[in-house]
Specification:
mainly alpha; 2 domains; 3-stranded antiparallel beta sheet; 3 strands
Length: about 300
């Protein structure tokens, strides 16, 4: 009897090891096929991260998503595996998106297809429960992809106008005579063009990414995290408007050449720090409002 039970146990262990080996073999084959298909796309994306200031936050995004998966591993590792055939449709859609992006030379589509492919593979092999558990780190991956050119061009110029209006008003407040024509600010001794770099668009995605990370660690309420992400948009515009104000004031009171030299480059880093401080101020304001509401609530009586 004991020998029979031991034989059944060994058979189950052997079967489990064979299933695990088959699963890892499938994962390895899929990883190799994915690497073959997406190597040019991901290599170009990594090049943009390294060389494009607008995408310099990119490596932080997948690193944070992997950290989230590791941090919640005990939760999703206990979920039952229920593969769904719907994942195959998602995979086919992702591959079609890849072909469209490659043939149309549209980097955003080809890069987005990789994120959708991850969703399809998850649903196909693990099921919807796992995908729901991975939803936030999966959706966060879209922030690693630079804004498509057609959207960038539609957003950049309106932000340039907003930043130039803000900078013109602030310069007048500090006593600098200003004549603004669109995104051109005319001073008494020079003119300033609020270019795309000064509109806030370059720091927008980076600031939104940091706002989402900041909200995840310090806030458990979803609406607060949304507030942080949305607040990043006006903060980026105001911060870069302050950069124009500093450049204009320096050009007017000191020297236009000094304003366009080292100060202009250094102010880009300084303004990003100021933008982060503004984000922290939003958090402090929300906490102050919570404290104020707590004081106004009626206290329970014994």
């Amino acid at each position: 009897m004991a020998e029979h039970q031991e034989g059944l146990l060994n058979s189950r262990v052997t079967k489990a090891s064979h299933e695990a080996l088959r699963l890892w073999w499938q994962v390895g084959m899929l990883a190799a096929a994915t690497a073959f298909l997406y190597y040019p796309v991901l290599a170009r994306l990594a090049w943009d991260w390294w060389n494009d200031p607008e995408a310099s936050h990119g490596p932080l995004v997948p690193a944070f998503s992997l950290y989230l998966l590791w941090r919640t591993r005990q939760k999703w590792s206990c979920l039952p595996r229920k593969p769904s055939w719907f994942g195959l449709a998602v995979i086919v859609g992702a591959l079609a998106l890849l072909m469209t992006g490659v043939l149309g030379v549209e980097f955003f589509l080809s890069r987005s297809s990789f994120v959708f492919l991850l969703a399809g593979l998850t649903i196909s092999f693990l099921g919807w429960a796992h995908f729901r558990a991975f939803l936030f780190p999966w959706a966060f991956l879209f922030l690693m992809i630079p804004i498509p050119a057609i959207v960038f061009n539609q957003i950049a110029f309106p932000l340039q106008l907003v930043a130039s209006k803000f900078a013109g008003a602030m310069l007048e407040l500090v006593g600098v005579p200003v004549l603004r024509e669109g995104n051109i600010i005319q001073l008494s001794n020079t003119s300033l063009e609020v270019a795309e770099a000064c509109s806030g668009i370059r720091s927008l995605l980076s600031l939104i990414t940091l706002a989402v990370i900041y909200g995840y660690f310090l806030e458990t309420r979803i609406h607060r995290r949304v507030i942080f992400a949305v607040a990043a948009v006006p903060i980026a515009v105001v911060a870069n408007g302050l950069r124009v104000v500093g450049t204009g004031a320096l050009a007017h009171f000191w020297n236009p050449e000094k304003a366009e030299g080292f100060f202009h480059t250094f102010s880009g880093w300084l303004i990003f720090v100021i933008a982060m401080l503004m984000l922290f101020s939003v958090d402090s304001l929300l906490r102050w409002i919570d404290q104020l509401r707590g004081r106004r609530l009626p206290q329970p009586t014994g």
